[in-house]
Design goal:
Length: about 290
């Protein structure tokens, strides 16, 4: 794929003094559609989706802070509030009209948070596996333990060296281990755009190791439900049948939304839009009205 398409152009904007990258697929006269990737991913993971929708929308896809070709945050600030601020800064930079948002995983959480804070700024929103951990996975621990664990994580990350792969093929092997659903061509495309070449000739992933850190401030389901409940636009929540995210209808999270539909795609894991692209696109195109 990397050699067979006319791809997007690269641009940048600023948030909290960070220079953040985004790609633009053209058609500026069309309605704006923003694609937001997940943790340890990059904006070019949306290429298959963008190719299917580019005739109908002006598509842009950012690299989150600490990911892809965006700056790494000094001090390792990679919290939800930072990501939502970055999206707000991007929207402020590129458009004055309401946009459609699609996000995956962490990106799915970001677009829901943004839409709940700025409900008038979003026409429609699609969140793929972006509802956070299911309630049974949220273990309540004392605040001092969470803080102590976080400090230990940050100290460990400070000692960690960036992993180097001797070749693209070795990085590709790791990519396929992370998601066995990927075809070799899919995995190669994601790998090529997801690594940088080091001075010594090896390859390393572009994301900052500090994105691994778990915030000492627990995922607050009450706060999330309050924000989700402010979303007024049509909302689509997509999950894979083979994923770990849980069933948000059965566990009650879905009830927080006013105007939402949900769809489970069979034979798909966490990366639904990679694992079952055609089925995912059929559902999304119907939701978007194209």
């Amino acid at each position: 794929m990397a050699d067979s398409i006319i791809g997007p152009t690269s641009h940048y904007f600023y948030s909290q003094r960070l220079k953040l990258d985004y790609v633009d697929w053209g058609n500026p006269d069309r309605p704006l559609l923003v694609l937001v990737h997940g943790s340890r991913d990059h904006c070019r993971n949306w290429d298959w989706v963008a190719l299917r929708l580019r005739e109908h929308f002006h598509i842009i896809a950012p690299d989150l802070r600490g990911h892809g070709d965006s700056d790494w945050a000094i001090g390792g600030n990679y919290s939800m509030i930072d990501y939502v601020l970055d999206l707000a800064q991007l929207m402020r930079a590129v458009s004055t009209e309401p946009a459609t948002l699609i996000g995956h995983s962490l990106g799915g959480s970001i677009v829901l948070q943004y839409t709940g804070v700025y409900p008038q700024a979003v026409r429609k929103v699609v969140s793929i596996e972006g509802m956070g951990p299911p309630p049974h996975m949220i273990k309540e621990t004392p605040a001092h333990e969470r803080m102590s664990n976080w400090i230990g994580q940050m100290q460990d990350l400070a000692r960690r060296t960036v992993r180097e792969y001797p070749s693209i093929d070795e990085a590709l092997k790791r990519m396929r281990e992370a998601n066995p659903h990927l075809s070799k061509d899919q995995a190669l495309h994601l790998t090529i755009w997801g690594v940088r070449r080091n001075e010594n000739g090896t390859y390393s992933w572009k994301f900052d190791n500090y994105v691994h850190a778990t915030s000492p401030y627990m995922f607050n389901l009450n706060d999330a439900r309050e924000i989700w409940g402010r979303i007024t636009c049509p909302t689509l929540l997509v999950r894979g049948s083979e994923s770990w995210v849980g069933d948000w209808v059965k566990d009650g999270r879905f009830s927080a939304f006013r105007n939402a539909k949900t769809h489970t795609i069979e034979k798909a894991g966490h990366w639904v839009h990679h694992d079952q692209l055609d089925e995912f696109m059929k559902i999304v195109e119907r939701f978007l009205g194209i």
